[in-house]
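Q: For a teaching session next week I want to show students how multiple molecules come together into a single three-dimensional assembly. I've collected the sequence lines for a complex. Could you give me the predicted structure tokens for the whole thing so I can convert them for display?
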Amino acid sequence: MNSADLGRRVGVPSTALFTDQYELTMVQAALKAGTADRRSVFEAFTRRLPEGRRYGVVAGTGRVLDAVENFHFDDEMLAFLRDQRVVDTATVDWLADYRFRGDIWGYPEGEVYFPGSPLLRVEGTFAECVLLETVILSILNHDSAIAAAASRMSSAASGRNLIEMGARRTHELSAVAASRAAYIGGFHTTSDLAAGFRYNIPTVGTSAHAFTLLHDSERDAFRAQVDSLGRDTTLLVDTYDVAEAVRTAVEIAGPELGAVRIDSGDLLLVAHRVRQQLDELGATETKIVVTSDLDEYAIASLAAAPVDAYGVGTQLVTGSGHPTCSMVYKLVARAESADPGEPLLPVAKKSLGAKTSRGGRKWAARRTDAYGVAEAEVIGTGDVPAGLVDRQLQTELVRGGEVVAREPLEAARDRHVTARAGLPMSAMQLSRGEPVLPTEYV
Amino acid sequence: MNSADLGRRVGVPSTALFTDQYELTMVQAALKAGTADRRSVFEAFTRRLPEGRRYGVVAGTGRVLDAVENFHFDDEMLAFLRDQRVVDTATVDWLADYRFRGDIWGYPEGEVYFPGSPLLRVEGTFAECVLLETVILSILNHDSAIAAAASRMSSAASGRNLIEMGARRTHELSAVAASRAAYIGGFHTTSDLAAGFRYNIPTVGTSAHAFTLLHDSERDAFRAQVDSLGRDTTLLVDTYDVAEAVRTAVEIAGPELGAVRIDSGDLLLVAHRVRQQLDELGATETKIVVTSDLDEYAIASLAAAPVDAYGVGTQLVTGSGHPTCSMVYKLVARAESADPGEPLLPVAKKSLGAKTSRGGRKWAARRTDAYGVAEAEVIGTGDVPAGLVDRQLQTELVRGGEVVAREPLEAARDRHVTARAGLPMSAMQLSRGEPVLPTEYV
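A: Of course. Below is the structure for the complete assembly, covering every listed component.
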């Protein structure tokens, strides 16, 4: 990893085997046929948004840049490929020298997207570009799914605090990427220490029922927690009886008690009762954190409840019903040689109706109306119309194999706020609907 | 990783930060209160199966053992915890020496489970057990979700070949674990090279539309592939016109052509036509591989089609609608000191109706009827009834911190076949239903 300045490593030494076998066998066949170095353009895009969703959120771009940089085959991997006869010796030798030396342009992280948006455009020789397909899609499909769910939850929460707590509900390393994507989508903190370590996302914690059950009484447990973590801590009040727990909590921590957490029951009702009780006890500044299978709909339904923060787990890290984005990575143009002077010819699959795609190297721009609100995602293959030049969405990410667009996570997080705010208001509706922008091909 | 004999490393040096912050702050508070070393029993279980599912499949146990062995805090991690003031200095010092030294019993990998089944029982001091909560749940929740989907697909495929192709649809490291879980659930091969490298799962590959589009004609592409990969390769025949592609494929590779892949269109219809055409061309041994958004229902609906292998991606790695298993890890009993002579007292959350659990250290057994078919999952906290002693489900996995139950992946895969075969026939129905075994508490 070469992004130590943006966080710490919780990772893998090489990303080269996060790859479907056919990427390597295609390289082998193309090397033998003399077509491996044909100049090629691949694009990552999705044919549709998940059903009912009104916009997508680009996330994972920063991780893609890490993955491209770390895509190299070490000796042990090469030995594996040789011993298992995954590819022939000539290809193993070629892979030993592999580094991506091409160019990548794409939607910057945090931007919104629509069906057909060319999210990433990868250019180089066929062989160097095709190898990156699997890992690029893994990252974009996962991270963008989580960011989209996070963005909806963040709309629903209307500025209240959102804590990402889903680590236990997904693969341990998905969880780290999910925290990152959730942060981009508008979450404020995470419970996942690895996400704090790797990405500098602020980490928080409360306590579990086990901590209360460990002690001889709830009183002992609360005292132990306050003694060690201070009055500003968050006490979990639903192990035995909520009203009694709240009374005990304020008795022990005083009105300076940081927060109480409610993790079961009718959250709307219980939050109201707990708020009233806290206020009566003088703990008017003590906050209420709710958790328990929340999703964007549950968050929205608690808008009228006196809740200060939502802890969200399962539904966040599984994309709230849509754990992946169906992005694909397609060859859209290629030349007949490696010669930069050779013209790029658009190519596209034609058979069987479904799954066809549009050939040609694409640009994308977002047209706005007289009020500055986005009105269309415009995609084309020729010259960019003058009125759209300033509204182009793709930025340069990698030039000649060098990453040129690293940025702090906050930049992507801020960009998402701006991009979402530029969409028609109906983008924020949680109900099912069509994409809020039409995609126009010119 | 200490399991080099079972595969190679694609991993992380330490699993200790795949942990929610509150696990560490609870340890801090318990250390200060003098309760951290109380002898404790935690159990991982689920309160319900995903809606409509008839059985669950235990997967991830082997990865849990790796995670427990690799759960230690290195200097960089300790510095992070200290600098970010996640916990106090006394706790950082305690963590520096942390190794799990307790015992773990559990359902062996590949076994089936039901609501309440105590899948993992972790015993030791409170502090050493509570720290493992997050990573244990991450692994079991993810891997078991994939294995359950794989098992249903494997029932539906009735012995036909199943290829795991989902790497691009999920996080790049989830993908590796998903391949592993799918293999346990009955898949035969994977496209994911990292899964082959790490777990010795057989890897396979075909080719993509990009390979055909790279070349000046489909004929050139097929020739390039056959020249390099041999006649036994799998040619993708739906880039332009399927009938023409099949004709060209057999012309180039001869009747020894390994297989053709169909990735779009009405698979039932197209498979029939392609089979007829292949047979007419004399390629009677050439196999047909279908891919394209398959799930267990699509696989079942293709039972009458002349299909030899199914490549499954999205729906497999996202658990076919249920990407996580809602497993929890609960303190069920604890003593009042670390003294092994001190009695274990059952404990359980009581508040607010939902989410309550049963206290006490549990055993589990599967009772069978006169025909040897399973009829109930029996769970108890006292002595095991004589008739069930031989039918107990938990096995010893870790003794005094040492892993004692490592096994090859094939053992878990074989165990699943046996366990599923022991269930009532209705377990194999794909339609929604109740768990096929009732859970009885004695």
